[in-house]
Specification:
globular, alpha/beta, seven-stranded mixed sheet, 296 residues, Metallo-beta-lactamase, Chain A, 33% helix
Protein backbone atom coordinates (compact mmCIF):
# COMPACT_ATOMS: atom_id res chain seq x y z
CA UNK A 1 0.00 0.00 0.00
CA UNK A 2 1.43 3.33 -1.08
CA UNK A 3 1.68 5.84 1.75
CA UNK A 4 0.46 9.39 1.16
CA UNK A 5 2.30 12.68 1.09
CA UNK A 6 2.04 13.35 4.81
CA UNK A 7 2.42 17.11 4.37
CA UNK A 8 -0.69 17.14 2.20
CA UNK A 9 -2.73 14.71 4.33
CA UNK A 10 -5.37 16.52 6.42
CA UNK A 11 -6.81 15.51 9.76
CA UNK A 12 -10.54 16.27 9.71
CA UNK A 13 -12.55 16.97 12.88
CA UNK A 14 -16.20 15.95 13.26
CA UNK A 15 -18.02 17.20 16.38
CA UNK A 16 -20.37 14.45 17.63
CA UNK A 17 -21.68 16.44 20.60
CA UNK A 18 -21.22 16.26 24.37
CA UNK A 19 -17.50 16.97 24.01
CA UNK A 20 -16.91 13.92 21.78
CA UNK A 21 -15.18 14.33 18.42
CA UNK A 22 -13.95 12.02 15.68
CA UNK A 23 -10.68 12.77 13.90
CA UNK A 24 -10.43 11.17 10.47
CA UNK A 25 -7.35 10.93 8.25
CA UNK A 26 -5.32 8.31 6.36
CA UNK A 27 -5.13 5.75 9.18
CA UNK A 28 -7.58 4.65 11.85
CA UNK A 29 -10.20 7.03 13.20
CA UNK A 30 -9.46 8.74 16.53
CA UNK A 31 -12.02 9.43 19.23
CA UNK A 32 -11.59 12.54 21.37
CA UNK A 33 -13.31 13.43 24.65
CA UNK A 34 -12.44 16.90 25.95
CA UNK A 35 -13.34 18.37 29.33
CA UNK A 36 -12.03 20.63 32.07
CA UNK A 37 -10.05 17.73 33.57
CA UNK A 38 -8.17 17.04 30.36
CA UNK A 39 -8.52 15.05 27.15
CA UNK A 40 -8.97 11.34 26.47
CA UNK A 41 -8.03 9.90 23.06
CA UNK A 42 -9.03 6.59 21.55
CA UNK A 43 -6.32 5.41 19.12
CA UNK A 44 -3.32 7.36 17.88
CA UNK A 45 -2.95 7.26 14.06
CA UNK A 46 0.36 7.10 12.21
CA UNK A 47 3.30 8.88 13.85
CA UNK A 48 3.76 10.99 10.71
CA UNK A 49 0.41 12.62 11.50
CA UNK A 50 1.12 13.20 15.20
CA UNK A 51 1.64 16.97 14.93
CA UNK A 52 -1.56 17.37 12.91
CA UNK A 53 -3.49 15.20 15.39
CA UNK A 54 -2.27 17.20 18.39
CA UNK A 55 -3.04 20.45 16.56
CA UNK A 56 -6.60 19.22 15.89
CA UNK A 57 -6.99 18.26 19.56
CA UNK A 58 -5.70 21.68 20.64
CA UNK A 59 -8.40 23.35 18.54
CA UNK A 60 -10.96 21.26 20.44
CA UNK A 61 -9.45 21.87 23.89
CA UNK A 62 -6.42 23.60 25.38
CA UNK A 63 -6.40 21.09 28.22
CA UNK A 64 -3.62 18.46 28.23
CA UNK A 65 -4.10 15.01 26.72
CA UNK A 66 -4.07 12.71 29.76
CA UNK A 67 -5.24 9.28 28.56
CA UNK A 68 -5.01 7.22 25.37
CA UNK A 69 -6.92 3.96 24.81
CA UNK A 70 -5.75 1.57 22.07
CA UNK A 71 -8.62 -0.39 20.52
CA UNK A 72 -6.08 -2.94 19.17
CA UNK A 73 -2.41 -3.18 18.25
CA UNK A 74 -2.13 -2.33 14.53
CA UNK A 75 0.25 0.43 13.52
CA UNK A 76 -2.28 2.78 11.92
CA UNK A 77 -4.00 2.91 15.33
CA UNK A 78 -0.96 2.81 17.65
CA UNK A 79 1.84 4.41 15.62
CA UNK A 80 1.62 7.64 17.61
CA UNK A 81 1.69 5.89 21.00
CA UNK A 82 5.37 6.51 21.69
CA UNK A 83 5.10 10.24 21.01
CA UNK A 84 2.10 10.51 23.31
CA UNK A 85 3.79 8.35 25.94
CA UNK A 86 6.87 10.58 25.93
CA UNK A 87 4.56 13.55 26.55
CA UNK A 88 3.23 11.90 29.72
CA UNK A 89 -0.01 10.47 28.33
CA UNK A 90 -1.08 7.23 30.07
CA UNK A 91 -1.58 4.41 27.55
CA UNK A 92 -4.35 1.83 28.02
CA UNK A 93 -4.92 -1.39 26.06
CA UNK A 94 -6.03 -4.96 26.45
CA UNK A 95 -3.50 -7.44 27.80
CA UNK A 96 -3.30 -9.06 24.36
CA UNK A 97 -2.69 -5.77 22.55
CA UNK A 98 0.14 -4.92 24.93
CA UNK A 99 1.68 -8.36 24.36
CA UNK A 100 1.49 -7.95 20.56
CA UNK A 101 3.18 -4.54 20.76
CA UNK A 102 5.92 -5.90 23.00
CA UNK A 103 6.48 -8.86 20.66
CA UNK A 104 6.57 -6.62 17.59
CA UNK A 105 9.21 -4.42 19.22
CA UNK A 106 11.45 -7.48 19.65
CA UNK A 107 11.91 -7.61 15.87
CA UNK A 108 14.53 -4.83 16.21
CA UNK A 109 13.09 -2.78 13.40
CA UNK A 110 15.27 0.22 12.56
CA UNK A 111 14.36 3.70 13.87
CA UNK A 112 11.62 5.37 11.90
CA UNK A 113 9.89 2.10 10.99
CA UNK A 114 6.86 0.50 12.67
CA UNK A 115 7.33 -0.97 16.13
CA UNK A 116 10.93 0.03 16.58
CA UNK A 117 11.99 -0.55 20.19
CA UNK A 118 10.37 2.18 22.29
CA UNK A 119 9.37 1.65 25.94
CA UNK A 120 7.22 4.80 25.79
CA UNK A 121 4.98 3.11 23.19
CA UNK A 122 4.11 0.15 25.44
CA UNK A 123 0.74 0.48 27.21
CA UNK A 124 0.99 1.11 30.94
CA UNK A 125 -2.50 -0.02 32.01
CA UNK A 126 -4.19 -3.16 30.68
CA UNK A 127 -7.92 -3.88 30.60
CA UNK A 128 -9.08 -7.43 31.32
CA UNK A 129 -12.84 -7.19 31.60
CA UNK A 130 -13.52 -3.48 31.47
CA UNK A 131 -12.80 -0.10 32.99
CA UNK A 132 -14.67 3.19 33.34
CA UNK A 133 -13.45 6.76 33.00
CA UNK A 134 -15.40 9.66 34.46
CA UNK A 135 -14.35 12.69 32.48
CA UNK A 136 -15.98 15.80 31.02
CA UNK A 137 -19.34 14.86 32.49
CA UNK A 138 -19.21 11.58 30.60
CA UNK A 139 -19.10 7.96 31.65
CA UNK A 140 -16.67 6.24 29.30
CA UNK A 141 -16.83 2.44 29.29
CA UNK A 142 -13.89 0.50 27.89
CA UNK A 143 -15.16 -2.97 27.03
CA UNK A 144 -13.02 -6.02 26.18
CA UNK A 145 -14.90 -7.96 23.50
CA UNK A 146 -14.43 -11.58 22.35
CA UNK A 147 -11.91 -12.28 19.56
CA UNK A 148 -13.01 -10.66 16.30
CA UNK A 149 -10.59 -8.44 14.37
CA UNK A 150 -7.85 -9.59 16.80
CA UNK A 151 -7.86 -11.39 20.14
CA UNK A 152 -7.50 -8.11 22.05
CA UNK A 153 -10.16 -5.76 20.68
CA UNK A 154 -11.72 -3.05 22.84
CA UNK A 155 -14.92 -1.06 22.37
CA UNK A 156 -15.12 2.41 23.91
CA UNK A 157 -18.58 3.66 24.78
CA UNK A 158 -19.26 7.33 25.56
CA UNK A 159 -22.48 6.71 27.46
CA UNK A 160 -24.12 10.13 27.76
CA UNK A 161 -23.04 11.16 24.27
CA UNK A 162 -24.49 7.91 22.86
CA UNK A 163 -21.32 7.21 20.86
CA UNK A 164 -19.50 3.87 20.49
CA UNK A 165 -16.02 3.48 19.03
CA UNK A 166 -15.27 0.03 17.64
CA UNK A 167 -11.72 0.01 16.31
CA UNK A 168 -11.31 -2.32 13.33
CA UNK A 169 -13.93 -4.79 14.49
CA UNK A 170 -16.17 -2.67 12.25
CA UNK A 171 -15.16 -0.62 9.21
CA UNK A 172 -17.94 1.37 7.58
CA UNK A 173 -18.21 0.81 3.84
CA UNK A 174 -15.21 -1.49 3.31
CA UNK A 175 -14.39 -5.17 3.49
CA UNK A 176 -12.77 -6.02 6.83
CA UNK A 177 -9.31 -7.20 7.65
CA UNK A 178 -9.27 -10.17 10.02
CA UNK A 179 -5.92 -10.67 11.74
CA UNK A 180 -5.93 -14.46 12.02
CA UNK A 181 -2.31 -14.57 13.17
CA UNK A 182 -3.34 -12.63 16.26
CA UNK A 183 -6.62 -14.33 17.11
CA UNK A 184 -9.00 -12.73 14.62
CA UNK A 185 -11.90 -14.77 13.27
CA UNK A 186 -14.71 -14.18 10.79
CA UNK A 187 -17.24 -15.94 13.01
CA UNK A 188 -16.15 -13.70 15.88
CA UNK A 189 -16.70 -10.64 13.70
CA UNK A 190 -20.16 -11.76 12.61
CA UNK A 191 -21.21 -12.65 16.15
CA UNK A 192 -19.90 -9.39 17.58
CA UNK A 193 -22.24 -7.37 15.38
CA UNK A 194 -25.20 -8.77 17.32
CA UNK A 195 -23.63 -7.41 20.50
CA UNK A 196 -22.83 -4.06 18.88
CA UNK A 197 -26.37 -3.73 17.52
CA UNK A 198 -27.86 -4.41 20.97
CA UNK A 199 -25.60 -1.75 22.48
CA UNK A 200 -26.96 0.85 20.07
CA UNK A 201 -30.12 2.88 20.18
CA UNK A 202 -31.79 4.45 17.15
CA UNK A 203 -29.65 7.59 17.46
CA UNK A 204 -26.33 6.02 18.47
CA UNK A 205 -23.32 7.24 16.51
CA UNK A 206 -20.64 4.63 15.79
CA UNK A 207 -17.03 5.65 15.23
CA UNK A 208 -15.71 2.80 13.06
CA UNK A 209 -12.09 1.82 12.66
CA UNK A 210 -12.18 3.30 9.18
CA UNK A 211 -14.83 5.17 7.26
CA UNK A 212 -17.55 7.67 8.18
CA UNK A 213 -19.71 7.70 11.30
CA UNK A 214 -22.24 4.87 11.19
CA UNK A 215 -25.56 3.81 12.73
CA UNK A 216 -26.84 0.50 14.04
CA UNK A 217 -28.56 -0.15 10.69
CA UNK A 218 -25.17 0.12 9.01
CA UNK A 219 -23.97 -2.60 11.39
CA UNK A 220 -26.79 -4.92 10.32
CA UNK A 221 -26.01 -4.30 6.65
CA UNK A 222 -22.32 -5.01 7.24
CA UNK A 223 -23.11 -8.20 9.15
CA UNK A 224 -25.33 -9.40 6.30
CA UNK A 225 -22.52 -8.75 3.81
CA UNK A 226 -19.98 -10.66 5.87
CA UNK A 227 -22.39 -13.57 6.38
CA UNK A 228 -22.84 -13.73 2.61
CA UNK A 229 -19.07 -13.78 2.09
CA UNK A 230 -18.74 -16.58 4.63
CA UNK A 231 -21.56 -18.60 3.07
CA UNK A 232 -20.06 -18.40 -0.41
CA UNK A 233 -16.63 -19.44 0.78
CA UNK A 234 -18.08 -22.23 2.94
CA UNK A 235 -19.84 -23.69 -0.13
CA UNK A 236 -16.56 -23.61 -2.04
CA UNK A 237 -14.73 -25.36 0.81
CA UNK A 238 -17.47 -28.01 1.05
CA UNK A 239 -17.22 -28.59 -2.70
CA UNK A 240 -13.46 -29.21 -2.43
CA UNK A 241 -12.48 -26.08 -4.36
CA UNK A 242 -8.91 -24.91 -3.91
CA UNK A 243 -8.16 -21.40 -2.68
CA UNK A 244 -6.68 -20.51 -6.06
CA UNK A 245 -9.77 -21.71 -7.90
CA UNK A 246 -12.02 -19.83 -5.51
CA UNK A 247 -10.16 -16.56 -6.04
CA UNK A 248 -10.12 -17.11 -9.82
CA UNK A 249 -13.90 -17.54 -9.84
CA UNK A 250 -14.50 -13.95 -8.60
CA UNK A 251 -17.40 -14.93 -6.32
CA UNK A 252 -17.68 -11.48 -4.72
CA UNK A 253 -17.91 -9.31 -7.84
CA UNK A 254 -21.42 -8.15 -6.97
CA UNK A 255 -20.33 -7.23 -3.43
CA UNK A 256 -17.23 -5.43 -4.70
CA UNK A 257 -19.42 -2.65 -6.07
CA UNK A 258 -20.24 -1.45 -2.54
CA UNK A 259 -17.51 -2.93 -0.34
CA UNK A 260 -14.37 -3.35 -2.46
CA UNK A 261 -13.16 0.22 -2.71
CA UNK A 262 -10.51 0.34 0.01
CA UNK A 263 -7.37 -1.47 1.15
CA UNK A 264 -8.94 -4.92 1.49
CA UNK A 265 -9.70 -6.42 -1.92
CA UNK A 266 -11.68 -9.52 -2.89
CA UNK A 267 -8.74 -11.93 -3.31
CA UNK A 268 -7.33 -11.04 0.10
CA UNK A 269 -10.67 -11.38 1.91
CA UNK A 270 -11.37 -14.68 0.19
CA UNK A 271 -7.97 -16.00 1.29
CA UNK A 272 -8.59 -14.98 4.91
CA UNK A 273 -12.00 -16.65 5.05
CA UNK A 274 -10.95 -19.72 3.06
CA UNK A 275 -8.00 -20.42 5.35
CA UNK A 276 -10.12 -20.09 8.48
CA UNK A 277 -12.98 -22.25 7.24
CA UNK A 278 -10.67 -24.86 5.74
CA UNK A 279 -8.77 -25.13 9.01
CA UNK A 280 -11.98 -25.34 11.05
CA UNK A 281 -13.26 -28.13 8.80
CA UNK A 282 -10.35 -30.29 9.93
CA UNK A 283 -8.98 -30.63 6.42
CA UNK A 284 -5.37 -30.09 5.51
CA UNK A 285 -5.46 -27.26 3.01
CA UNK A 286 -1.77 -26.65 2.40
CA UNK A 287 -2.60 -22.94 2.39
CA UNK A 288 0.16 -20.43 2.04
CA UNK A 289 0.78 -18.38 5.19
CA UNK A 290 -1.66 -15.54 5.49
CA UNK A 291 -0.06 -12.12 5.00
CA UNK A 292 -1.93 -9.08 6.22
CA UNK A 293 -1.93 -5.68 4.54
CA UNK A 294 0.65 -3.18 5.76
CA UNK A 295 -1.66 -0.66 7.41
CA UNK A 296 -4.45 -2.14 9.51
Amino acid sequence: MELPDWDKTPVEDLDLGHGVHMLESFGGNIGVLAGDEGVLLVDAEFPQLHDKVTAAVTRISRKPIRYLVNTHWHWDHTGGDGLFGKAGVVLFSSEQTRAHIVEAQKMNNPPGTPFTSDPAAVPVVTVTNGVRFHLAGQTVEVIHVPPAHTDGDLFVRFVEADVIQTGDTFSHGFYPDIDQQHGGTIDGMISLYDTLYRMCGPNTKIIPGHGPVASREDVREYQAMLREVRNRVAKAVAAGMTEEALVASHPLDDLDVKWGGNLIKQPYLLAIVYEELKASSGARCGCRPHRRPPLT
